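seq:
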Amino acid sequence: VLSTTAIAADDHKGHNHDDNKGGTHAHDVKPMYGGIVTEVKDINYELVAKPDSITLYINDHGKPVETKGATASITLLSASDKAEVALAPAGENKLEAKGTFKIGAGTKAIAKVTLAGKPAQSVRFTLK
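struct:
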C-alpha cells in the first residue's frame, strides 16, 4: 500500500502547479550541490549556505537556468539576528555572495529572485 501511495504522489500528470499556495510542491527534490532544495513553479532553487559564501543554484527539471541578468537578495533570520545579502550571477545557473555569514541549524533564509524577463519569486529555506 505504501509503495502505491509513493508512486501516486510523484505522478505529475493532470495537476496544475499553480493551484497550490505559492506554487510549491509537497514532494521532495534531491539536492544536486549538497544544499537545501525548494521548488517553486517547477523551478528548483538549491541554497548552499556556508560561513564564507551563500550560493543559490537554479535548475528547471535538472537543466541549468541562465542567471545572466538576474537579481537576487536573501534575508537570513536566526533567533537573534537578521542579515540582508545581495546575490550576483556567478555562472550559468548560480547566484552567489562572498563574505562572513552567521549560518546555523534553524536559520531561515528567504530569497527574492528575479530572472531576466520573469516576475520575482520568493523562495523560503530552513537550514539544517
